[in-house]
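Posted in: Protein Modeling Q&A

I'm a second-year student putting together a small comparison for a lab meeting, and my supervisor asked me to include a predicted structure for U-box domain-containing protein. I've never done this before, so apologies if this is the wrong subforum. The sequence is pasted below exactly as I got it from our records. If anyone can share the structure token output, I'd also love a short note on what stands out.
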Amino acid sequence: VFPSATTTAIGEVRRPRRQVRFYEDELPGISDSDGNRALDDIIQEFLCPLSGFLPLEPVTAEDGRTYERRVIREWIERGPRDNLISPVTWRPMGPRTFPATQVRNAIERAVNFGTITGPKVEQWRSRIEMEREVEAARTKASMGDADAMYHLGVWHQCGKKGMKRNISKAFEWFQRSADGGNIQGMAALGFLLVRGKGTPCNRVEGIALITFAASEQGGVDTAAFCLANWYNEGLYDLPKSEKWAMFWLSRVVSGTCSIRDMDDQGVERARAMLNKLQKHMKPLSSSLR
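Accepted answer (user: helix_wrangler)
Welcome! Here is the predicted structure, written out as tokens:
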């Protein structure tokens, strides 16, 4: 949309700003200098019309528009092969996309030099950092780093660091991490096996892995909490046992576990469960005297 040009009080024609549909309020700011004003229309053209973000991996589709590769590929894959249309022009287009290297370079230079600013730029910086973190983890994992394998599993499981949630991929990384001796990986792998997430259910192996992870090398508090909850409720073929529930809860609450992945809210929940069980056990002990 192109608004009409306006004239200032001194007769100077003010150049209209081109608007990008849907995202005008969130456009990156332009540094206040005459040389940078000409970049305004160009930077607006960089925004992916589908996501509204500056693209990390820009590609040009057959409609001539620049998109984030992942987003436009999803559009193309969802559309009918024999009647694909552009999400911008709504006219027929082909399914091919081409790397827009110059666009990526231009965005990176503009961001690094401070030519463009604003929330969209900060989001782009944050996504770049996540991309680098993921790439570093992949490199370490390829060299046998079991910790990196575990983190890749978590990111796939939770859909973090720009990754799509994929439980099957998470299972693969947790398995590799566990094979490398990482007890957090063992706990995560055991949980998926018990629940049958991303893999066929195998409760015997899953509970064995979680018990090992809760005990070895000081133990993982999330594994201890899982066992406590399952013993307390008698879940996943474990016998209902307040004694064992209290044992594992005590390890979580006391901070005995060397690896503490639970947040304060989780620890408080464990403490409340333990207090409730202890109150229930005292009258029972008195009645047996």
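A couple of things worth pointing out for your meeting: The chain has two domains: 6-121, 144-288. The domain at 144-288 is CATH 1.25.40.10 (Serine Threonine Protein Phosphatase 5, Tetratricopeptide repeat).
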